[in-house]
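Re: beginner question about structure tokens

> Can someone show what the tokenized structure looks like for a real chain? I only ever see the sequence side.

Sure, here's an example I had lying around. Input first:
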Amino acid sequence: MQQGLVASLGRPGGNLTGFSWLGLALAAKRLELLRELLPNSATIGMLVNPADPDSDFEMRDVQDAARILGRQIHILTARTDGEFDGVFATLVKQQIGALIVASDAYFSGRRGRIVALAARHGVAAIYDRREFPDAGGLISYGHHRADAYRQLGIYTGRILKGTKPAELPVLQPTKFELVINLNAAKALGIEISPKLLALADEVIE
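And the corresponding structure tokens:
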């Protein structure tokens, strides 16, 4: 809706419906989780892709949340593979040990490289999808993608049977998952609190 594709989530209009991933709305929650992990981190990095049209919205949400939580956000950008090394060099130079990786398909496609750099430089990073902790990353919080795809499949079936897309509200995720990789936490010297472990949908050991 922020990009003007639909009139509203409830009444999309035109000949269009779909799924709103809510990736931006969850960015502030990731900041809260990172603060829970590293309560003494006054400054937190945020990696965004400036080529992503949604990056401004996500940065704004995180910065608004940071003001409430008394944290500062240092924005770092990367749109090519060659820029990742510079991002982590900056984090080390400025002694920023916590990082939010923005929701971005480009970053997801390079999750192995990002996770490896975070581990090499001792940066505690939080991601938007479970594929990152599956690849060795520390923690992720986001929507449950399997459930989202199931909902989309139901919508596809309804449209194929004749329902007009404009009559179908834009779907929003109803299931979310918090995944924590204890091996990554141990390597970073981070002790995960019982509170976070109790909230986790999956703990990788």
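Each token stands for a local structural state, so reading them left to right follows the chain. Residues 1-13 have pLDDT under 50 and may be disordered.
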